[in-house]
User: What shape does this take?
Amino acid sequence: MDVEALSAFQGGDVSEALRENALPAGFGLYGRRCGISSVEGKKDIALFYSFRPARAAGVFTTNLVKAAPVRLCQKRLKGKGPFRGVLINSGCANACTGARGMKDAEDSLKLLGKGLDLDADQLLVASTGVIGRFLPREALEAGVKGLAEDVAANLVSVDNAVRSVMTTDTRPKAARARFEFGGNTFTVWGCAKGAGMIHPNMATMLSVVLTDAGLPQKELHDSLRWAVDRSFNRVTVDGDTSTNDSLFLLANGAVKEFSKPPKKLLDLFRSALHAVCLSLSVQIAADGEGATRTAWIFVKGAKTEAAASKLASTVATSPLFKTALNGADPNWGRVLAALGRAGVPFDPDKTELRFGDVVVYDRGMKTDYDEKALHGLLTKEKVVVRADLRAGEAWSFAVTCDFSKEYVAINADYTT
Amino acid sequence: MDVEALSAFQGGDVSEALRENALPAGFGLYGRRCGISSVEGKKDIALFYSFRPARAAGVFTTNLVKAAPVRLCQKRLKGKGPFRGVLINSGCANACTGARGMKDAEDSLKLLGKGLDLDADQLLVASTGVIGRFLPREALEAGVKGLAEDVAANLVSVDNAVRSVMTTDTRPKAARARFEFGGNTFTVWGCAKGAGMIHPNMATMLSVVLTDAGLPQKELHDSLRWAVDRSFNRVTVDGDTSTNDSLFLLANGAVKEFSKPPKKLLDLFRSALHAVCLSLSVQIAADGEGATRTAWIFVKGAKTEAAASKLASTVATSPLFKTALNGADPNWGRVLAALGRAGVPFDPDKTELRFGDVVVYDRGMKTDYDEKALHGLLTKEKVVVRADLRAGEAWSFAVTCDFSKEYVAINADYTT
Assistant: This one.
């Protein structure tokens, strides 16, 4: 997608992606409550299962402090697989839990493998929730056994699975894209949980993406990396990168296997994967803790894409910009001040700044714009800010949400 | 000051520093309302004046986008001086105002020079307030003329001057230190305005520091740089560096001139200057927009001071840590997660983390601490967090305040 396509991007139809028949062929989703989460009645454990052996790729948090399940999956994904599923719990991050945390993660997969009659090495795991608490062993075991029973009874439910991985999310997040190749229709489907501690490198929180195209491990990994850099890694809620960020891609080849995928197929797959990742990213920003609107910051005319990315991200992370966005306050001075402190050289006296299509600043000075019209633009659900540095051809973007009193309320007493 | 002295540091007596007789010899302060600020009755223009020629040093914002007065003073301070005073207005930042903004800054000093019968080149200027608006010329001129009349009538007032530079500050900020050398008593006095857009490099907002010791320009500049790196540059309110940050140091030698200052004197002067800068920095953090408490983050056992500084600053800037601080929520997982994403290598499995004197995390795992006692520690006005990386001898610190609903309310509609 180019700048114009991205500016106009509205995400896909979430409710359609949440329908049972939206899934790629050969996958079953299961979710239930086992009691790990302290929120009464909240579903808190899910299984994303492939009925046939699949290949997998993963992208994980760059935080030095990595939760036990992250370390376990990074190790496991160095092997060739095959893989059969991802077990995810909410309510406890299983981070900063030492050797016991690692054993809890390994044991839960052993138990699941036993229930599914599979080698436990073919399973992956992720956790989300409070840091520094042990998983409640009894609840965890009951949940894992229950999921294996659900698989046996064929109690598939996209809704249960997607809701089980949510924490402070206010709504489920899912996306789907399809493409045709050689007379077959392929599906890429994904879901995510977001809400807080969302920031590039890698911004994702937890996400699972499934496809019925069969691709080699290397192509899966390269495509995922490429798509994540242009979607999840461009989204920020609060600048905090969590200890548990994990994104899994499972490809089971249920429609067709390609041991040497043609370039045309790979391009179609990448586009579909990117559309799904981008839609999920935007859903995350829009449902950022306490968020009422999103802002898309485009920086163009830069010398490099990395420079443009850093500038856009600095604006997207600025609390002063994000609070102004909350108040629909057209305070473009804060955008410029954030660009100026990003640590990337550019010339403010050559730069142009727009809110929507209104030029508010040009070549060192404010312009003569209509304040009321500008305020109107800022009350929309999607606000577009564009900076043109007039120094090169590269561009990038960042998506963020506003900083509201509700964000503070949600985060002031999360563990207590 | 070492780690222990800093942990125990409570700042000085602000009300004493605000008394008329607290000033160093040979300085007069003036402040009044001229109508630049839209807040009714708010004093908005001040003059910090030396009755005799002084030397000056300055530290300014590192933001690429620099307000007109910053650019003017950076040029002027390349000359040798002497300097006689600093004119400061609140209510308008005179930033992003192009050639007209520069002319406004220059003209106001010309007019002030005329009123004081001085060469305008001997005067410095700073502005604070909204970005992207022109200074109202009529109000500005009335204010400058009024200040010259105040000087003639000897209408000195520390309180008027200090209050004139405030914006969203809820209270005036001032500090004073004294030292004896060779039978003389020397005074270092300073005031500051803070509140928002406060972040290292250089974090200050506006501050004026005055001394009656007479020191050469180079020693003044070096001492100021040294003190600022260990005070203002260790404070963050919201991670945003403004376009107008300016700190001026004027030394008029009214007590004694030293053309070749002995090392002992320089050491005494640096300590006094550091105490004043540190006190002002802490007053700024404590009065951060919407703040209810401060946190001091100490990182020790690091390989370099720069690494320790970056780690401490990353925690101090994390919205998730700052909201937890607001709720007195002992969520140390967020401290660890922030350290982990700082981009500085360390080993979480060797690290120890304390809130106050309570060890909450050690070598990869949570400890068995009393949650209630911990919550109690966090309800204090000053919260101390210590990380020991156990990898070296270097240490640093950062001071921050909590993120409250009031911060959002203050910043959601600043320009409207």
Summary: Chain A has two domains: 3-286, 294-412. The CA atoms of residues 53 and 107 of chain A lie 21 Å apart. Chain A touches chain B through 68 residues (CB under 8 Å).
